[in-house]
Amino acid sequence: MKAKLFAGAAALALVAGGAFAQDLRFAPGEDAKFNWASYEAFKQDLSGQEITILGPWLGPDKDLVESVIAYFEAATGAKVNYNGSDSFEQQIVIDTEAGSPPDIAVFPQPGLARDLAAKGHLVDLGADTATWIRDNYAAGQSWVDLATFPGKDGNSGLFGFFYKVDVKSLVWYVPENFEDAGYEVPATMEDLKALTDKIVADGGTPWCIGLGSGGATGWPATDWVEDMMLRTTTPENYDKWVSNELKFTDAAVVAAIEEYGAFSRNDAYVAGGAAGVASVDFRDSPKGLFASPPQCYMHRQASFIPSFFPEGTVIGEDADFFYFPAYAEKDLGQPVLGAGTVFGLTKDSPAARAFIEFLKTPIAHEIWMAQKGFLTPHKGVNTETYGDPTLKKMGDILLNATTFRFDGSDLMPGAIGAGAFWTGMVDYQGGKAAVDVAADIQKNWDALQ
Amino acid sequence: MEQLFMASATIIIGVFGCVAYFFLSNMALDALYPPRGPNAGANISRATAIRPWLFLLPAILLLCVYLVYPFFVSVWLSFHDSSGNRFVGAANYTWLLGDEKFRESMKNNMLWLLVVPAASTFFGLLAAALTDRIRWGNLAKALIFMPMAISFIGASVIWKFIYDYRGEGQREIGLLNAMVESFGGSAQTWLTIPFWNNFFLMIVLIWIQTGFAMVILSAALRGIPEETVEAAILDGASPLQIFFKIKVPQIWGTIAVVWTTITITVLKVFDIVLAMTNGQWGTQVLANLMFDWMFRGNDTGRASAIALVIMLLVTPIMIWNIRNARAEMR
Amino acid sequence: MDNIAGTKSSLVWTVNLAVIALVVLWTIPTFGLLVSSFRDRDQISASGWWNAAVSSEANEIARAGDADTQLQEGDLWVIAGTVLPEGKGEVSRFGTSSRDPTAYAAGETADLGEGVSLTVATDGSYRLTSTTAFEGRSPRIFFTATTPPRLTTENYARVLGAEGLGRAFLNTMTVTIPATVIPILIAAFAAYALAWMEFPGRALLIAGIVGLLVVPLQLALIPLLKLHNQLGIGKEYIGIWLAHSGFGLPLAVYLLRNYMVGLPREIIESARVDGATDFQIFLKIILPLSFPALASFAIFQFLWVWNDLLVATVFLGNNQDQLVMTGVLRELLGSRGGEWEILATSAFVSIFVPLVVFFAMQKYLVRGLLAGSVK
C-alpha cells in the first residue's frame, strides 16, 4: 500500500494533465454488439477545443460518465472536463447567475432546468433535436415535452436532452426468502396487498421503508405517492397534478397519499413501526431485507438502490426486483414511474453542440449500457449490450409500460417538489391527516410568485 | 514539484504584498509629512489624522467589496421577484409575515439565541478555567477543541451515531437509544420529538462552539495581570472567590465578545439543521429557511428578505457595541 | 496548615475530575466516529460502534460453496467449508431457512430433504451432503456466531490512496495559508486603529463591523462571483484568498480589537511620549503583546478555510489544479453519499492538519502570557 502511495505521488507529478491519454473501455470496432458505425460516422475534427461539463455524478458514477466522454474526445480531439458536484443545484445556479457557467450542465431534475431556462441561462437546442428525439426515443414526444420550457423571451423551446433514465416502480426482495416462506411475486396490486397481509399473518414484517435523507428527508415518500397516483387515477390527472391544474387537495391526490399511508402508517406492515419510517435513513432501510431472520421482505425503491445493499450482494440471485404492480380492477394498464438526467447547453460553442449531437449516437448509450446503472429510451441501441440481465429486465419494464410518467416532484417548482411536498410527507408519516397535509402543500404552492 | 513551487511562490507573493503595503504606505506618509523640520507640529497632526485610514484602508476595502456590496445587493433583491427582474415592493416581506414556516423559524431562533450562546460560553469558561489549573490541561483543551476542527461532514455522521433510531426489535446503532434501552426504556426517534428536538440540534452546536469559547477565554484568562491574583491570594480569598470576584470581572469584555460571536453564529447556522432535519418536525430556523428559498425555491427575493430579517436581529448587539466603544473612548 | 493543604488537594481532585467529565462528554461522540472509521460499512449499520471492541453474537448468513467444489465420498456428494472464513469465533446455532435461522444447535445435523443434510460445527466448519450430485446455486447457511472484534484499516487505505489526494493537499495549502495570513495582517492593523487611534466615526465603524459579521455567505456568493468574473479574476487562487479574507475579516477585527483594547494603556502612552509613531508602536509593542489573540484567530480562520467546501467550489475551479481536499474526499462518497465508513475516515484524515496547527499555536498562547507578565 505504502509503495503504491509513493508511486502514486510520483506519477502525479509526471502525468499532470494526462487526462488526454484516456483509454477507451471497449476498443472501437472489436465487439460487434456495439454500434461502431455510429462512432465512425460521428468522427470530426474539433481538436484544440475544450468544454466543461458540470453534473451531479460523483465517485463510481463519475468514472462511468467519463468512460463515455472518452469516446467523444477520441472521435473529435476536443477536450472535455467533467466536474461532479454534490451541491450541483447550488453550484449551477451560482455559476450561471454570476456569468461563469460550464458549457454543459447535467440536471438531475428538469425543474431546475426550467428555472434556468426562464432566466435565459440555457440555450435552445433547436427544432431539429426535438424532431430527432421524437423519432428516436421511445415515447419520444413525452421526452420532448418534459424538456420544453418557456425561455427568457417567453417563447417555448427545447432546453434539455434526456440521457440516462431510471425506473422507480420497482420492489426489491430476496428471492430465497420468498422461497423459504412460499411467497409468490405478486402480479397485481391486489396480490401485493394480499401478500402483505399474509406476511403479517405469518408473523413477519412485509416492508422496509425509510424516508431519512439528511437535508432531503421525505423524498422517498413522494415517489410512493407518485406511483400510487399512477395506479389510482388516470395519467392525465397525474399530468394535471404535476402542473397544479389538479390541486393537491383534490380527492384523487388525497386518495393516493392515503394509499401510501395504508402501507407506511401501519405498524404491522413496516419494520421498526410506523414511527421509525420518517427518520430511518433511506440508505440504511434496504438492509433489513438481508438480515437474519429477515426484518422485512420487500422494499420499494428506484433502480439505484443496490449500491446500498450489503457488500457482495449479487443482483438477480441474492436480491432481485419485481415491477410495483398496478390494480387489476382499475384498468390503468402498467404505469411506470421514472426519472432521468437532462443535458442542457449553458454556453453555446461548436464543441458543446457537437457533444449534444454525440449523445444522439447509439454508441454514446451503449458504452454506458454495457457497464452498469444505465437505461435508455433510445430505440436505435442494441439491447444486447446491456451489461447484466438485471438492466435488461429493467429495460423490459420500461418497454412494457403502457404509461411512462416522470417523477412528479422533480417537475414541480423547487419550493414544492424539493420542499413542501417532502415536508408534507414527513408530517403525514408523523400522523397528520392526508387532507391537512395536502392543504398545506397546496397553500405553499399558491403562495409561490 | 512545479505545483509545489507555484504554491509557495504565490503564498509568498500574496503575504508579502500585504506586508509591503503597510510598510511602504507608512514610510510614504512619514516622508510626505516628516515629523521634524520647520512644520513638524502641523506635519505630525496631519500624519496622525491620515494614519488611521492607512491602517484601515485594506480592511475597509475588503469589507466593502465582500460584505457591504452583497448586503446592498440583498436589500435590492428583497424588493424584487424570484428572478430579480421585477420590482414587487414589500411583497416579499408581507409574504414572510403570513408564512407559517417563518413564524416557526423566528420562534426556534429565539430559543437557539437563548440557549446556545449561554451554554457554549458557560462550558467554554468552565473548560478554560479548569484546564489552566491542571497538568494535562493542554491535552484536555485539544480534546474539547476537537469538535471545532472536525469537518461538518464528519460532525453530521458523528451525531447520526448518537441519535440514530432503528425501531423495535432491531439493534440500535445510536448511542442514545442504546443507553435508554439498557436502562429499560424504549428507543425514541429523537429528532422528531416536537419541541425537544430543537434542543437535540442545539447540543450539536454547543458541542462545537464550546471549543471556540474555550480558546478565546483561555487567552483572556492568561492575560490577567498576575499581581491582582496574587494580591487576592494573600488576602486569603478562596479559589472560587478569586475566579468570580477577580478574574471574571477582568475578562468581562472578552466574555461579551464570545457571547456576541456565538450569537451571530447561531443566527447564521444552517448546516446542522439542514443535514439533520432540514427544518422538518418543527425545527426550522431562519438561516436554513433562507437557504431553502435560495437554492430549492430559486427565489432570490424571498431569500434576501429572510436574510435582511436575520441582519435586523443583530441590531441590538450593534447598538450595544457602539455604546461600549463610546464608553472606552472616554 | 494541614487543613489548608487538605482542601487544596481535594480541590485539585475536584478540578481533575471535572475536567475528565468534561473531556469525556466532549470526546465520546468523536470517539464513536474514530472507532467507526476502522469498521466496514456492513458492521457500521449492523451494530453500534461501542460493540466494536467486544465479541458480539450476531445472526449471519453464509452461502455454501459452489457446486463445482463438491467431492464424491462413497455414494455421498459433499461440499465442505467454513462459515467463518477468518477462522475466529464460535458458532452456537444454525439453520437452513430464513424462517427459522436458529433451528439447530452447532454439531447437530439438519435434514434439508431430498437426501440433503447439513452439519455446522462450533468452529464454523460445515459439511453439506447429498445422495445426488449438487446442481445450481448452493443453499444459504444461517448461523448464530460469537465473533471477536474485527477492525480494518482498509478505509484509511482507500481514503489516503484516493486519486489526486496529494495534489489536493497542496491545493488546499495554497488556499489556506494566504487565506489565513492575509486577513490576520490586515485585521491587526485595522484593530489597532480601532482600538488606539482617535478619529471621527470610530464607534460607528466598530458597530458596522459587528453588523457585517452576520451577513450570510450564501447571499454574497452570486454577486461576488459575478464581480470576480467582471474583474477578470475568474476562478483563480487570488479570488478565493480575497473571498476568504473578506469573509473572515469582521471576526478577526472584532476579536483582535477587543484584545488590543484590553492592553495596558500606560505602555502605549509612554511609547507615544518617547516619540514613537503609531506604526512603530504597533510593530514593536502591540503585535508581540497580541500573540495569544493572533494565534487563536489564526487557529479558527485556518480551520474554516481548511474545512470549507462551499466557498472553494464557488470561487475555484473543479479541475485537478484547483480541487481542494474536501472536494476529493467528497468524490469518494459517490453521488448519493451513504458511505458512513468513508465519511468517518475522511473526517479523521482531514482533522489531522488542523490539530497540528492547534498544538503549534498553543505554544504562542503561552508566549503571550509570558510577554505580558514581563512588563
From TrEMBL, chain A:
Species of origin: Aliigemmobacter aestuarii
Coiled-coil stretches: none
UniProt keywords, alphabetically: Signal, Transport
InterPro entries for this protein: Bact_solute-bd_prot1, SBP
Annotated transmembrane regions: none
Signal peptide residues on this chain, from the entry's feature table: 1-21
One Pfam family cited in the UniProt record for this chain: SBP_bac_1
Family of this protein: Belongs to the bacterial solute-binding protein 1 family.
A cellular-component GO term for this protein: periplasmic space
Protein name from the UniProt record: Carbohydrate ABC transporter substrate-binding protein
UniProt subcellular location: Periplasm
From TrEMBL, chain B:
Keyword list, A-Z: Cell membrane, Membrane, Transmembrane, Transmembrane helix, Transport
One GO location term (cellular component): plasma membrane
GO biological process: transmembrane transport
Cell compartments where the protein resides: Cell membrane
Main location as per UniProt: membrane
PANTHER family per UniProt: ABC TRANSPORTER PERMEASE PROTEIN, OSMOPROTECTIVE COMPOUNDS UPTAKE PERMEASE PROTEIN GGTC
InterPro entries to which the protein is assigned, alphabetical: ABC_transporter_permease, MetI-like, MetI-like_sf
Descriptive protein name: Sugar ABC transporter permease
One Pfam family named in its UniProt record: BPD_transp_1
Family indicated by similarity: Belongs to the binding-protein-dependent transport system permease family.
Lineage summary: Bacteria, Pseudomonadati, Pseudomonadota, Alphaproteobacteria, Rhodobacterales
Domain annotation ABC transmembrane type-1: ranges: 106-321
Xref: PROSITE patterns: ABC_TM1
Its membrane topology: Multi-pass membrane protein
Species assigned in the record: Aliigemmobacter aestuarii
Transmembrane segments: 6-24, 53-77, 110-130, 142-162, 199-221, 251-270, 303-322
UniProtKB/TrEMBL annotation, chain C:
Protein name: Carbohydrate ABC transporter permease
Lineage, uppermost ranks: Bacteria, Pseudomonadati, Pseudomonadota, Alphaproteobacteria, Rhodobacterales
Gene Ontology cellular component list: plasma membrane
Single GO BP term: transmembrane transport
TM spans (from-to): 12-35, 175-197, 203-225, 237-256, 281-306, 340-361
Annotated localization: Cell membrane
Family per record: Belongs to the binding-protein-dependent transport system permease family.
Protein's UniProt keywords contain Cell membrane: yes
UniProt entry keywords in alphabetical sequence: Cell membrane, Membrane, Transmembrane, Transmembrane helix, Transport
Originating species: Aliigemmobacter aestuarii
ABC transmembrane type-1 domain boundaries: 169-361
Topology relative to the membrane: Multi-pass membrane protein
Cell membrane found in the keyword field: yes
Source organism, top-level taxon: Bacteria
PANTHER family: ABC TRANSPORTER PERMEASE PROTEIN MG189-RELATED-RELATED, OSMOPROTECTIVE COMPOUNDS UPTAKE PERMEASE PROTEIN GGTD
